[in-house]
Every structure is written in structure tokens, then in C-alpha cells.
Write a structure and sequence with these properties.
Layout (H helix, E strand, L loop, with lengths): L3 E4 L4 E4 L7 E6 L14 H15 L3 E6 L6 H10 L3 H18 L15 H13 L3 E4 L2 E4 L15 H5 L16 E6 L14 E3 L1 H13 L3 E7 L3 H16 L4 E7 L2 E3 L2 E2 L10 H7 L2 H9 L7 E2 L2 H21 L11 H19 L4 H17 L9 H21 L6 H15 L4 H16 L3 H14 L1 E6 L2 E6 L2
Parallel strand pairs: 3-4, 3-9, 9-10, 11-13
Antiparallel strand pairs: 1-2, 5-6, 6-7, 7-8, 11-12, 14-15
Length: 482
């Protein structure tokens, strides 16, 4: 079936049809670079990375624009605190963001425009809006006139009359209407500024994305995305500006991802529960951040409570445990296992159907765990390796790596990364490898001396701790129960 995308504009799923056959143009609102980005800022890059990879897997070329807001009140305030130029603040945190982005091993974007490189295009768009009587200048300021736009509210489905109830123009305001929003601001002492027909100043927030997307993607493009908090007013205002300037529809499909919650509360600085991506990646791992974001559907809340983080570590450990088990035997002569082949083919179709259905990642993971469980059921530690087992190992590994590549997951060396995950689980369980190794060694000694009662008691003790013990002709190994 065709890819179905939930369109915020129409509030329903729609078949995805690119404007230009075979070519998708996509814009995602990027960060304001005044500090290390919090975990929530990375939900967009991670889920849209999957969207992009799936579109390309379906044979489409993708042009992806992800911008940096490098002039803004937050940047100016930070610069004033540090007593350095605003540009220095923005440059520093673009570099820091790109370090985090690179550590996630996501596909690079075709364009990462900075607002300050598009001032000419911003001024040209504002001038066009004034010419089209969609905006007005007022003593150095320029405002968009909301009453000039009969379609205002089309994305957020808000009613202008309802928005105006209780709204008041502040004393001294130059606005004709309290809902009008800024396109150009006059310069204040010490702030970044550029010359314009309305005097020296800088752009308002909303106009930047309209100007950059228009320059890089054209009058109308396929997909525009961001968090649900951007639907109103930012994306609503983008539509008003872009369509007011060009007279054409701005975007065909609007895609919005939901919030990340920490302990069931929306992540925000006002709640004091923001975790920077840098801290999360340092404490845990990029693989865990990607898994946690993708295991929830992008339109659902994603919970980053401590329990959910460790559930994610355990889930990843199950997958990597199967990959580590399969890796040493996946080469050499093999014999097709028809039952396993049928299961993998069904899983492949399930993944295709899931991603075609508005990028349903929870269903993708369900299919992966189906195959992992089936593989584990037919392969235990110490079992004699048969040609069919070799084939199953290769088939499972190839398929999981292929699906993982779409999500930028499961590409780590299996045995090495499994140990990393197990160490995290042991820390959470307040256990150490040394203490477990001692119990396992004591059990081996009990078995050697035929003290089977003590051996069984030590196995029960390890199992109660969450440790599985496997005996084979090659020896005894232990692993954290997944």
C-alpha cells in the first residue's frame, strides 16, 4: 500500500504523494542554539531520520532541511550573561549540537541553514508581505496583520474570534490587533542588527523558517515537521507568512511529534526536569536514547522515567544477546530452515505495513522481538550447531541489521555492546561482575566435587539475583536474565 501519513492540517491519515514524482522535500524546525540541547530536542531529529530513511528505502530521493536559529532573545540574554558576542554563543552550541548529532549516527541533512545567513531573503519576504497588504510597518517594527488572512487558524484549528476574546493591545504597542505578530524588530543597544527598509534591526522568530524553507525548497514543498508545541503559534504563523507572500499553499503534509515526559510530566525547564542530551548520552548511550524515542509512536508521549530507561536497556540487551549468540555461527555451510524463513518473510511484511502506516515503530519492534524469541527457542548455549542453525543465525542477523539501519539501531558489535548493556543492568540491580563470578566459581567447584545440593542452591541464589547460568561441554557461562 502507499505510505499513509497523519496530516495535522487535515487531522487524518492521507496517502503520501510527493509534489515532484520520486523526490521529497522536507523541512524540520531545528534548535535555538543558546545551550546544550535537552533530550526532547532530539525527538525530531531521531524520528525524522527514520521517516527520511524509509522514504529513501521506498525509492524516493529526499532533500532534508534542518535549520539553526542563531539569533534570538535567548541567545542574546546568554551572551549578555557571559559578556561575549551573541554569535560566539550560537557558534559554540551549534558545534556542541553537532557532536551529539554525530554520536547518534543519524543521516546528515542536505541543508543546515542559519538564520543569520538568510537576512536578505527574510527582508525580501517581509517586503513582499507589505506589498501584498499582509503586513504593515510601524516606526521600525513590522507586524503581520492577522485580520488580512481569512485562513488564519487552518493548521491549529483555532478560531480567530475566540482568540481575540480577552486579548488586549498593550499600552504603547504599535500593533493594530493584539494577535498581530512581529516580522521585524528595531535594534536595541548591544543586540545583533542588520540594515533594512524599516531601520536597523533583526527578524522576528516565525519569519525565519518561512524565508529559509522558501529559498531552499520552493513555494510549496511536501513535508514540514516539528513538535506539537510548534503548531501554534509558530507553524500557524509560518503558513500565514509564506502563503501571504507567495499566494500558494506552503506545505502539503504537516507532521508533529509529541512530548517527552520525565516521570509522566512534560519535559520543560519550568518543571526543572530537563536532562540534556549530552548528560543522557554520557550516562547511558546513544543507542538507548534512539530506542526509547522510537519505541513509542511519534504522535504518543514518550516516557523517560528511570523504570522506562531500564526497560529499554533490558529490551536492547535481549536483541543484542540474540545477535551475539548468532554472530559466531552465521558463516559457513547452511541449510534453509523453511519454518524460520516463513516467519522472517512475515516479519518483513509486518515491518513494511507498519512503517507505511504512519511510521508505526512500536509494531516494528514487536516484529523484531517475535523473530528474536523464535531464534532463541531454537538455539541455546552449548547446543550442537547444525546447518539449519547456521542459516537461522544468518537470516536473523541480516534482517535485524537491515531494519535497524532504518532506525540507526543495532549496528554495534554485538558481544561488546551486550557487555555494556549488561553492566548497566548490573549497576541497576546493585550487583558486580566480581560478586557473580565468585558465586559461579563456587558453583563450578561444588559440581566438580559432586556436591550437587550446594551447586543447586548456588544456581537458585543466582537466579534469584536475576542471573541465568548455562552449563555446556564448553564450560559454564552466566548472563543477566532478559
Amino acid at each position: 500500500m502507499a505510505i499513509q501519513i497523519y496530516n495535522t492540517l487535515t487531522k487524518q491519515k492521507e496517502p503520501f504523494v510527493p509534489i515532484t514524482p520520486g523526490h521529497v522535500k522536507m523541512y524540520l524546525c531545528g534548535p535555538t542554539v543558546y545551550d546544550f540541547l535537552h533530550v526532547g530536542n532530539f525527538r525530531g531529529p531521531i524520528v525524522f531520520n527514520l521517516f527520511r530513511n524509509w522514504l529513501e528505502k521506498k525509492g524516493l530521493k529526499v532533500t532534508f532541511v534542518y535549520n539553526y536559529t542563531d539569533v534570538d532573545d535567548k541567545i542574546i540574554n546568554r551572551a549578555n550573561e557571559l559578556k561575549i558576542p551573541a554569535k560566539e554563543v550560537a557558534d559554540k552550541y551549534i558545534v556542541e549540537f553537532e557532536k551529539d548529532f554525530k554520536s547518534l549516527d543519524l543521516t546528515p541533512h542536505e541543508h543546515n541553514p542559519r538564520v543569520t545567513d538568510y537576512i536578505t531573503e527574510i527582508i525580501e519576504m517581509i517586503s513582499k508581505l507589505i506589498e501584498n497588504k499582509k503586513a504593515y510597518a510601524a516606526d521600525g517594527d513590522v507586524f503581520y496583520s492577522v485580520k488580512s488572512d481569512e485562513n488564519y487558524g487552518q493548521l491549529s484549528h483555532k478560531n480567530i474570534d475566540e482568540l481575540q476574546i480577552g486579548a488586549r493591545v498593550e499600552i504603547g504597542s504599535k500593533k493594530e490587533n493584539p494577535l498581530d505578530f512581529s516580522l521585524w524588530k528595531p535594534a536595541k543597544p548591544g543586540e545583533p542588527k542588520w540594515p533594512s527598509p524599516w531601520g536597523e534591526g533583526r527578524p522576528g522568530w516565525h519569519i525565519e523558517c518561512s524565508a529559509m524553507s522558501h529559498k531552499l525548497l520552493g513555494d510549496t514543498f511536501d513535508i514540514h515537521g516539528g513538535g506539537i508545541d510548534l503548531i501554534f503559534p509558530h507553524h500557524e504563523n509560518e503558513i500565514a507568512q509564506s502563503e501571504g507572500a507567495t499566494g500558494k499553499k506552503m506545505v502539503n503534509y504537516w507532521i508533529h511529534h509529541n512530548f517527552i515526559n520525565f516521570g509522566s510530566e512534560k519535559m520543560s525547564k519550568s518543571l526543572g526536569n530537563v536532562a540534556t542530551a549530552r548528560n543522557f548520552l554520557t550516562k547511558y548511550n546513544p543507542e538507548i536514547l534512539k530506542y526509547m524515542i522510537l519505541m513509542a509512536h511519534y504522535r504518543s508521549h514518550s516516557d523517560f522515567s528511570e523504570s522506562q530507561i531500564h526497560n529499554a536497556i533490558r529490551a536492547l540487551a535481549r536483541i543484542y544477546s540474540a545477535l551475539a549468540l548468532a554472530s559466531p555461527i552465521s558463516q559457513g555451510a547452511s541449510e534453509i530452515d523453511k519454518e524460520f524463513e516463513t516467519a522472517v518473510d512475515a516479519a518483513k511484511k509486518g515491518v513494511t505495513d507498519a512503517l507505511d502506516d504512519d511510521f508505526n515503530t512500536p509494531e516494528v519492534f514487536a516484529r523484531i522481538f517475535e523473530i528474536v524469541r523464535l531464534y532463541n527457542a531454537g538455539h541455546k548455549h552449548g547446543q550442537k550447531i547444525t546447518p539449519k542453525m547456521k542459516w537461522r543465525a544468518g537470516a536473523m542477523t541480516t534482517w535485524i541489521l537491515e531494519v535497524g539501519n532504518l532506525m540507526s539501531l543495532f549496528q554495534q558489535p554485538p558481544a561488546q555492546f551486550l557487555q555494556t548493556l549488561d553492566d548497566m543492568l548490573l549497576e541497576h540491580m546493585n550487583l558486580s561482575r566480581a560478586s557473580i563470578d565468585k558465586l559461579v566459581t563456587d558453583r563450578k567447584a561444588a559440581r566438580a566435587s559432586k556436591d550437587f545440593s550446594k551447586s543447586d542452591e548456588l544456581r537458585r541464589q543466582l537466579n534469584d539475583m536475576g542471573i541465568a547460568v548455562n552449563d555446556s561441554a564448553e564450560g559454564t557461562i552466566w548472563e543477566v536474565l532478559k
